[in-house]
Design a protein that fits this description.
Elements lengths: L2 H13 L8 H13 L16 H17 L3 H4 L2 H19 L27 H22 L1 H8 L1
Helix pairs in contact: 1-2, 1-5, 1-6, 2-5, 3-5
The structure holds zinc ion (ZN).
Length: 156
């Protein structure tokens, strides 16, 4: 699955944690960053070192602590929304990669076993199409969940 699709899916997942209207752009960004980060392991232990639950936990705790240290109240007061957006983006990246043939080492470093549905190749058209379908379903779910779709229909 292409990295940009991971970023789009991550950004949309961040929307679910935007508890206030002004948090929407921040949660979009944090979710997108969470979706972007796992493939930094492309050059070292790909699908291992940053595609597991342990790395998500460490990344989430690290971001939580970092945001608490930040002198900006906007970040400090919304640390949970921002951290959960980031974690959701990262987790969805791993879930999407688990659909590809290579799978993911979800419980590494505790096990070297590869997990996943392993349906299609990562660089295939089917993978890209599935990425867009997941992004669309997520966006539609958020529009319904947040009430934004109802507002949109009301004003059309
Ligand atoms: Zn990946």
């Amino acid at each position: 699955m292409h990295r940009s699709i991971h970023v789009i899916i991550g950004a949309i997942s961040g929307l679910f944690f935007a508890s206030k209207l002004y948090l929407i752009p921040l949660c979009l960004i944090m979710g997108g960053i969470g979706g972007y980060i796992p493939d930094f392991d492309l050059r070292f232990g790909h699908r291992k070192s940053l595609h597991n639950l342990f790395s998500v936990l460490i990344g989430g705790i690290g971001l939580y602590l970092l945001l608490n240290l930040f002198p900006l109240n906007l970040l400090r007061n919304n640390v949970w929304s921002l951290t959960l957006s980031f974690v959701a983006g990262w987790l969805l990246h791993i879930c999407c990669d688990s659909l590809t043939k290579r799978g993911v080492y979800i419980i590494w470093p505790f096990s070297n076993r590869v997990y996943g549905l392993r349906i299609f190749r990562s660089d295939s058209l089917a993978s890209t199409a599935m990425g867009f379908i997941i992004a669309f379903i997520l966006l539609l779910s958020w529009l319904i969940y947040s009430g934004a779709l109802e507002l949109l229909i009301k004003y059309l």
